[in-house]
Amino acid sequence: MPSPHSPSGVLAFGYVAPSVTTSVRLDMATFWIEVGLAAGVEVIVTECPSYEALTRAFAASEVDFAWLPPIPFVALERRKGAVALVSHHRDGSSHFHSVLVAHRVAGLKKLPALVGQRAAWVDPYSASGYVLPRIELAKRGIDPKTAFTTERFFGSHTGAVRAVLERRADFAGTWIGRDAAGVIVRAPWQEMVGGEAIRIVETFGVIPSDTIAARPTLGHVETDKVRLALMSTSKAHPHLVRDLFGVDEFRPWTREGYDVLQEHTTQASQDGLLEGVEKGDRSSGRLKG
Q1: What residue numbers bound the domain in which 140 lies?
Q2: Contacts 24+ apart (CB under 8 A), 134-140
């Protein structure tokens, strides 16, 4: 069953692209052409400005497949509105860690030092860039509802980290990937100019990886074809998958980590920790990227 907003017989894939470049747009189209050829379907690509917009488009069946971070997927699955197809595997792992980072010259080395500072978050739907840090801060006796002078959403992990590098924020929530030995092998700032100035203030718990999900009303045949095509295409075009999705390959999805995340998120929402509201002086500006 095609999306009602797509041409007959054409499936739509949606992802968050707040400031996508022409080269990324072309590479994403190329990737889904390859997936479509492997699955025997035609796929068009839809760009959304935020996780919230993508979640709305997915719930409204405006897209048939979507690249979903853990929080939007949990919210949709809870309403029986999404079926996970594949997990994103980085460095042989299907999970990553949330971290709070600061500029080295700021002297912010411990969590209590963040009180009274300017916070840079990614998005209200970002597990590592907003949700888990606020949950963990509350557990450690720091009330994220009142602790910071300003809180801004920058639309992406690079945007939040860049705000710290440019001293428009004092700390940011983001993610890191570690190898089996615990060494950091992937982080948003590694390829950024001046990224060596970033210091990790605190590392929080494990977060399950992103997923590509299908709407449950899509036919099982199409869903299975796309699932297999995603895995085979990731192996056939590893450089393209790495550049677009930041992963090494797609593997069959598992529930590991998702149930715990859903439980913690539900409780945090009830406690008012995840209101997703910016606050404070806006003179420092807002940057997406």
Answers
A1: 95-208
A2: 134/268, 134/273, 134/274, 135/264, 135/265, 135/268, 135/273, 136/98, 136/202, 136/204, 136/205, 137/111, 138/268, 138/271, 138/273, 140/111
8-state DSSP, 111 = G
User: Does the residue 156 lie in any domain?
Assistant: yes
pTM of this structure? 0.79
In-domain check, residue 277: no
Q: From the centroid of its chain, how far is CA 202?
A: 19
Q: Using CA atoms, how far apart are residues 67 and 72, in angstroms rounded to an integer? A: 10
Strand order across the beta sheet in which 10-16 lies: 42-48, 10-16, 65-68, 211-214, 83-89, 249-252
Question: 3 in a domain, yes or no?
Answer: no
Same domain, 83 and 216: yes
Determine the distance from the C-alpha atom of residue 34 to the mean position of all C-alpha atoms in its chain, rounded to a whole number.
23
Q: Are residues 111 and 69 in the same domain?
A: no
Query: Mean pLDDT for each 10-residue chunk of the chain (289 residues)?
Result: 52 90 94 96 94 91 94 90 91 82 95 97 93 95 96 94 97 90 88 94 90 92 94 95 90 88 89 91 41
Alpha carbons 188 and 195: distance in angstroms, whole number? 9
3-state secondary structure of 2: coil
Please give the single-letter amino acid code of residue 164: V
User: What is d(CA 119, CA 153) in angstroms, rounded to the nearest whole number?
Assistant: 9
Co-location of 84 and 165 in the same domain: no
Judgement on whether residues 103 and 16 belong to the same structural domain of the protein:
no
For residue 268, tell me if it sits in a domain. no
